[in-house]
């Protein structure tokens, strides 16, 4: 008669039933970050804004140090998303100041550039989100140790990239408008600047159709190639079910120094809220992949 000991089967190792992408993220070199919570509470707390400034500045400094020359960053937490109704130009100015001071402390003379009105006569125009930005930059205070290293009065054009002693250029939210493209101004500035680093903050350079046949099918591939030539060195955006901006379901983040796209899912409510790393990718995940990870 068999005993209990002889009838027992060997214990099998328990299978990891976690989502494969979660297990993969845990095994990778990227461990994720603690993203600030309650981001639908506006205005954001100073510590929340500072977290995003530091995150973007660290990635920018790493890219400049590594020798990148044409860079762009996209950071669209609620106060920096011009598509939303809680956009604050003051937050854009604070981010610009933080980035300029970071580069200045690295020994670089920095020129901050805002595009001027485009067009002729009564048809001159400037994007609404840039209205008054150039004047406000000229009125801002910078830290005493780097104030003399920063020129806040630049524009976007060949004359602004001429030999002026600057070592790096920050372009604040360059945008196309109906009837006029800012890309020729950027291209002329690139030629004048040469191999000095240029950083675009939250550019919006998609074609905008107009009755004047500007930014139409002709030349579209060349314009797309010109934008693609700028390397994205930082990316942060919240994930929603469009067209709404509430509730927040997750976040997508990329930094130059980690060289990985991180997908987070928002879990919990109020004080229990947090962003949990779901997966990492070598390139930006497509909407289907993000939908599967966040809502699947």
From TrEMBL:
One Gene Ontology molecular-function label: kinase activity
Region annotation Disordered: where it falls in the sequence: 1-25
Keyword Transferase: yes
Pfam families in the cross-refs: DUF1995 (PF09353)
Keyword Transferase: yes
Biased composition (Low complexity): 1-11
Protein name in UniProt: Adenylate kinase
Organism: Ostreococcus tauri (Marine green alga)
């Amino acid at each position: 008669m068999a005993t209990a000991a002889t009838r027992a089967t060997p214990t099998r190792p328990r299978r990891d039933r976690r989502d494969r992408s979660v297990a993969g993220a845990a095994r990778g070199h990227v461990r994720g970050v603690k993203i600030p919570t309650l981001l639908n509470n506006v205005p954001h707390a100073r510590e929340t804004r500072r977290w995003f400034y530091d995150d973007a500045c660290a990635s920018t400094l790493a890219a400049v140090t590594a020798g990148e020359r044409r860079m762009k960053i996209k950071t669209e937490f609620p106060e920096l998303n011009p598509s939303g109704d809680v956009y604050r130009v003051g937050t854009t100015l604070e981010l610009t100041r933080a980035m300029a001071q970071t580069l200045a402390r690295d020994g670089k003379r920095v020129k901050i550039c805002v595009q001027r009105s485009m067009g002729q006569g009564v048809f001159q125009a400037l994007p609404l989100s840039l209205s008054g930005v150039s004047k406000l930059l000229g009125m801002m205070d910078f830290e005493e140790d780097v104030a003399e290293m920063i020129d806040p009065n630049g524009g976007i054009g060949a004359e602004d990239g001429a030999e002026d002693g600057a070592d790096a250029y920050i372009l604040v939210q360059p945008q196309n408008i109906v009837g006029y493209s800012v890309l020729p101004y950027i291209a002329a500035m690139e030629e004048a600047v040469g191999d000095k680093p240029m950083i675009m903050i939250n550019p919006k350079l998609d074609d905008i159709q107009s009755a004047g046949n500007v930014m139409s099918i002709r030349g579209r591939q060349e314009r797309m190639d010109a934008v693609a030539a700028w390397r994205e060195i930082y990316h942060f955006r919240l994930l929603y079910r469009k067209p709404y901006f509430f509730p927040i379901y997750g976040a997508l983040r990329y930094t130059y120094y980690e060289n990985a796209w991180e997908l987070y899912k928002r879990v919990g409510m109020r004080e229990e809220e947090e962003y949990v790393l779901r997966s990492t990718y070598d390139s930006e995940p497509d909407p289907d992949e993000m939908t599967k990870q966040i809502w699947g």
